[in-house]
Predict the structure.
Amino acid sequence: MLIYYFVWGIVSLFAIIEVSIWQRAHPICQKIRGLGVWLIWSILIGLVCFKGAVGTDYHSYQHMFEKPSSINEDFVEPLFLLWMKVILVFTSSFPIFWMITGFLNISLKFYVIRYLSPFVSVSVLIYLVGLFFERDFDGIRQGISIGLSYWACVLYLQGQKWYKYIFIIICAGLFHYTSFLFMFIPVLGRVRLSEKWIYISLGLGLLCVVTGFDLLKLIFTIIGYDNYLYDKLYNYLRSEDYSRSVGLNIGLIFRIVILVLFLKFRALINMPEKKYNLLLNGFFFAIFISLIFNNIEILSHRLAYGFREFQIFIIPYLILAFKGQRNRLLVTAGICLYSLILLHRLLTTPHLVEFYYYKTIF
């Protein structure tokens, strides 16, 4: 387990360095930034591409890859199946499949982070303890899907033709169906929700958590149980792990605090309106989904996962709201501590501990 804390330490060090040399145009500072990004990218690539049977989903993907005839195509998205079949044309080695997928996955995330974040290392720090561990290090299907969705967000913010980012979103959705929610990014980028409606919505969501309101049961009562949606969710609904209540955990509380700070510091953050609206509305949507489906873990955690991880881009912008290098460094140190808490929480979760003992393919 120490290797994960070591990686966290490297990323934290470069996060503090990057913030401390921010706005310095000296060539040496630029080289340090570039070196930091390259080094962190290399470490994460190595950590993923050369790992052995580590993570909760590794053996499942290995079984799918080595015995594609055993796959239930109703539960695995078509583009991921096609991706496996393409790789199988060239090699039957699962570690090589994992290497290629991991390399593309993480490289795409770094490309997006460099475009959307003012501090790459700070964003990678948040990425490391959330999206990286849960999706790019483990559940790669949704990891690829989210990476493509974020790329679509970049294309949208760059003002590219609508059919370009819509095509990317369709591809993302065919890797993992939850990414079809990104079809709404043009709406999320244009609409500016008022603080009043955001707080009212959060209040209603918290009320759902406190009362244990079962929204999914209400939905199926209205539309019935004999349909594709229920069939898709059936295996999850009968699982104790996936259908349990989430409650107000530390991660959800932190995300609500981050959302409120992002609202309050708007005037202090130099960000284009469209970009701010997209990040704010997407992040708010994810929190609201987590609250109203709080009694069903799989929906609360995964349905809007891609939007939830907008915190990767939001948190570095909060640093800019503070004036003076000393204050920015203090905030960065707080973010490092926050990420360490999340990392420790992940690695000490009782039912996950055995899955994260690191071993290589060698």
User: Anything to note?
Assistant: The first helix runs from residue 2 to 20. The chain has 18 helices and no strands. The CA atoms of residues 269 and 321 lie 6 Å apart. The radius of gyration is 20 Å.
